[in-house]
Amino acid sequence: MPFILYVFALTNLVIGTGAFVLSGILQPLAASLHVSVAAAGQVMTAYALASAILGPLLLLATGSWPRKRAIALALILFTAGSVLCACAGSLATLLLGRVLMGMGSVFSALAAGLAVALVAPERRGSALSLAFLGMSLSYAIGVPLGTWLGFTYGWQAPVWVVAGASVVATALLMALLPARIQAPGANFTGLRQAAHHWPVLRVWLRTMLYFMAISCVFTYIGPVLLALSPITPAQLSFTLVMFGLSGVAGTIIGGLAVDRMGPLPTIRVQLALLALMMALLPVTRGHYALTLLALVIWGMAGFGSNAPQQVLLVARSPQHAPMLISLNGSMVYVGTAAGAVIGGAFIGTLGFDQLAWLGLPFALLAIATLWFDTRMQLHPAN
């Protein structure tokens, strides 16, 4: 694999850590800014909305730019937003910084476009899984480490670390990327074409559905785990780290499976495992080892679904890969937000221990969308 893909992975580790690290330290953040924890939680909403809405718009605005310049802008925005957050003395300033960081997260879509342009078509799955490996690592390494730093040295400490790491990543990429590199950009014509292409819309719909399924549970993962088994805080942290590591493994395995089996068989297996674990998780109540096993398989299946979905999008329209992948990322945030709302609405009815069953229908709907892809393979003229 080209060395630059490893740098993309490290940069995505920085971006993933910056995106999610504040979720683990909302209490000291809220106390520092003299706001409620609920108000402080809007830093996640601001980032998600900026990534989902402003990110694709920025991608369109820079569609005709050289890819190196577009990447530089994305990382400058992310770094500037990180510095602004670290210096924030009010919630309003912090939210503005999070918006800038969310806009800068468009780097991930730009990197994906470059990743598929730098390798042969049969290696796209591995290339994308490598480029996005950093996102999985952020759950296993970045967020837990950042949370410890936040509680030990103040909530600004991990944000400053993210800002510094972003400066280093930017410098590395500017030194390594050629001034001119052949990779697709984004434009309104391509967006209109994609919006009228049912196979592309189906991939986006599938992403939204399975993230709705996941978010119904993982938005409330702490209370869910405590409802399933009486575990200590140390065990809770260990469980979340194991989930993050399973995501790393799933990302790698998903990419390799795409290159060997193809995207459709891979996503079919991944979503089937995800649905099965959602059905079984409430049954593991009182058996911590079984709960942990279900979450590890869940993490591998959930993270492993990213590569086949992205390869399907690239195969549909390689010249519009960055925009398609960016909007797929938007579906991640839409699904996450919708799942959180739905899960919260049914906590009183189902209880935390049975919340996974609420997400199961969405996982099954995601699997159902694969019927159309299989039918198209068998009857391409239809």
CATH second-level architecture of the largest domain = Up-down Bundle
Return the CATH class of the largest domain.
Answer: Mainly Alpha
CATH topology of the largest domain: Growth Hormone, Chain: A
Shape: globular
Sheet with most strands = none
Q: How many DSSP H or I helices? A: 20
Q: Give the helix proportion (percent range).
A: over 70%
User: What average pLDDT do the residues reach?
Assistant: 86
Strand content: under 5%
| Secondary structure tally: strands | 0
> Which parts are unreliable, with pLDDT below 50 for 5 consecutive residues or more?
378-382
In angstroms, what is the radius of gyration?
A: 20 Å
Whole-Å distance between the termini?
Answer: 37 Å
Secondary-structure element series? HHHHHHHHHHHHHHHHHHHH
- Overall SS class: mainly alpha
Number of domains: 2
